TrEMBL record, chain A:
This is ABC transporter ATP-binding protein. GO terms for biological process: quaternary ammonium group transport. The keyword Lyase does not apply. It comes from Vineibacter terrae. Pfam families: ABC_tran, TOBE_2. Keywords: ATP-binding, Nucleotide-binding, Transport. InterPro entries: AAA+_ATPase, ABC_SmlMolc_Importer, ABC_transporter-like_ATP-bd, ABC_transporter-like_CS, Mo/tungstate-bd_C_term_dom, P-loop_NTPase, Transp-assoc_OB_typ2. One of its GO terms (molecular function) is ATP binding. PANTHER family: SPERMIDINE/PUTRESCINE IMPORT ATP-BINDING PROTEIN POTA, SPERMIDINE_PUTRESCINE IMPORT ATP-BINDING PROTEIN POTA.
TrEMBL record, chain B:
PROSITE patterns: ABC_TM1 (PS50928). Keywords: Cell membrane, Membrane, Transmembrane, Transmembrane helix, Transport. It is found in: Cell membrane. GO terms for biological process: transmembrane transport. The lineage of its organism: Bacteria, Pseudomonadati, Pseudomonadota, Alphaproteobacteria, Hyphomicrobiales. It is a multi-pass membrane protein. GO terms for cellular component: plasma membrane. This is ABC transporter permease. Pfam families: BPD_transp_1.
Amino acid sequence: MANPAKLELIALTKRYGPVVAVDSINLVVPPGAYCCLLGPSGCGKTSTLRMIAGHEDASDGDILLGKDNITDLPPARRGTAMMFQSYALFPHLDCVDNVAFSLRMKGVAKAERRARAMELLRLVQMETYAARLPTQLSGGQQQRVALARALITDPGVLLLDEPLSALDPFLRVRMREELKRWQTKLGITFVHVTHSQEEAMALADLVVVMTHGRIEQAAPPREIFNHPGSAFVARFIGGHNVLAAKIDAAAGAPVAVLEGGARLALPRDAAMRGADVHLAIRADRANLASGAAPPDMSLRGAVRAIEYLGAQVEVALAVPGTDGFVVALPEQRFFADPVSIGQAATVSWALEDIHVIAS
Amino acid sequence: MLHPLIAPDPAYVLLPKQGNSVSVGSVAQEAPAAAPRVAARRAGVAAWAPYLQVTPLTALFLLFLAVPIVTIVVVSFWDYDTVRVIPDMLLTNYRELLESPVTWRTYGNTLRYATMVWALTLAIGFAVAYFLAFHVQSVTWQMALFLLCTIPFWTSNIIRMISWIPFLGRNGLLNTTLIDLGVIREPLEFLLFSDFAVVLAYVHLYALFMVVPIFNSMMRIDRSLIEAARDAGASGSQIVRHVVLPLCKPGIAIGSIFVVTLVMGDFVTVRLMSGGQSASVGLMMANAMSLLQYPAAAANAVVLLLVVLAMVAGMLRIVDIRREL
C-alpha cells in the first residue's frame, strides 16, 4: 500500500457561474486520518470531494497531497481514488474485471492484472464472487468490490462519496464498521462525505462540519460534540438545546438573558464572547428537577411530548423564550419520577454543562 | 440508528408473527370452507375473463400478422399462368427461385447493400448519438438537436430520395459546382444511378433509426460510470471502447435490426437511385407482381422472410436486448 499522505486544501473555491459552492476553505487532513465532511445537502461537501478527486475543476485555491500540488492533475495521476455514491461498478464486467479495470487501461497483461485483482478481492473477502456481475451482488458486496477497485491503484487518499447511503439501515451500520476496520488496517487517509452526523461521529478522527460552502468547524468528534463552534454545528450535530441569549455585561458574574427575560448563570470565561451569544446545553446533561432548582440554572415549561427510545426517554418541554427544550433521561431515572404531557416541569443543569457559543 | 449489537435484529422482529400460531391456525382452518363457495359464485365470470382481456390484441395479431403471412405461404405453393393464379400444392415456385442464378446474385447484392448501409449508419448513428448524449450538456439543446435530426422525416421517403437527383445528376448542382471550381473537368458519372447513389439514399433514409436506439442506450448510462472510468485512468477513447460501447450494445442491436430489415425489404430506393441498373430482392418481387406472377413473388417473400428472421435471430444471439425493452 502507498504511504498515507497529508492532504491540504488552501483557499479552495468552487464557483458555478455566480453561485459559490465552496467558499475559500482551508483544511489540513493529517496522514492516515479518517476525515468526514459533514453537512446538509448543498453545503459544498460533495463539490469539495470532487475537486480533491479531480472530477471538478477548482475555481481557485490549491490542493496539496504530501509535497505535490495536485490541483490541476487528471484524476488518475493524483494518488487519490474515489468510491462513488452508488459504487458505479461497470455493469457489463464481472468483479475481477471491475477491479482490474484501471490496470487494463494502463495496458497491464491480462494474467497479471487478474492476479492482482484477485489479491484485492481476497483482501475484501470477495474472491468467491469473482465471476459475478455487479447486479448479482448485494449492496454490501458491491461496496467491497468498489473498495477493491479503488484500492488497486495504491491511492494515498481514498475519497468516499456518501458510500453508505445506498444501503438499508441495518447494513449501513455493518458496512460502517467495516469501513473503519479497513481504514485502520490499510492506514491510508479516508475522506468521507456524509450528511449523517451519526455516521461522522462513529467513523471520523476529524469531523469537518460545512454549511453554505464554508467550514463551520473541523475537529475530532468529541470536541465537536462537547464544544460545538457555532449554533449551526450544535443544531446539526444534534443532542443539544440551542438557546439565543444576550450577555448582561453590567452584572457582576456573567449572566445570559433569554428573550423571555430569564437570567441564566454562565461559567466564568463566558463574558468574553460578546453580547449576542447562543447557549448550548446537551440534552443528556439536563435533568428534570422535581424539587427546587437554582433559578439561574433551570427553566420551567410544560411537557409537550414524551418519546420512549428504549435506553433513553426524551422529554420535550415548551419553554417560553426558546424554541423548546429537550431532556434526554436514562430510562430508569424517567420512570422513577415520570411526568406526563401537559404537566409543568423544571429542567435544570450544572453550571459546567452550559456551553457559550459566540455569534 | 442503534448499533447492531444492541439494535433489534430484523429476524427477531419477525419471530413473534411466526409464533402467533393460534390466530394463524384459526384463519387457516376457516379458509377451506369459505373458498369453494366464493369460487363457485365467481366461476361464471372469472373463467373466461382473461381470454376476453387478450381478445383485442389477439384479433389484431391474427388480422394483421398471422392471416397475411399464412396467405403468402399458401399462395407460394400455388400455380400460375399469364392471367391467373391456380390453387395447387407445388414446389415449382421455390425450385425455380432457388435454381436461378439471378436469385442468388440479387440476394448477394441486397446483402451487400445491407452490410454497407449497416456499417455506415452504425458509424454515423454512434457518432451523432455520442455527441448528443455526452457532449451536449443542456437538456434543452439535447432535445432541440434531437428534433432537428427528425426534421427530414417530416417529408415522405420518395421526396427525400428524389431531391438527391437534381443534386447528384450529370448536370446537377454538385457536378456543376465542382467543374466551376475547377476541381474536375468531366462530370462525375458515379454520383447518380449507381451503387453509390443507392447507399447514399439508404443512409440518408435510415440513419435516424440507428441514432434513436443508440441515443436511448447512451442516455441510460450512469454518468458516474464515466467518472469511475476516468478515475481509473481511462482516456477518452478508452472510455468509449471499454464503457460506452459495451453498454450501448442493446441500442446498436435494435438499430441494426431496423436498418437491416428495412434495407432487405426495400425496392423503391433501388429502383429510383440505381436508375434500374441494380436489383434488390424487393425489386425482384415487385417485378414478379407486375407480371401477375403472385405465387413466384410469394415464394420469394417467404424465402426473404426466413433470411431476415435468421439475420435478426443471429443479432439477438450476440446481444441481449431485453434490458432495453
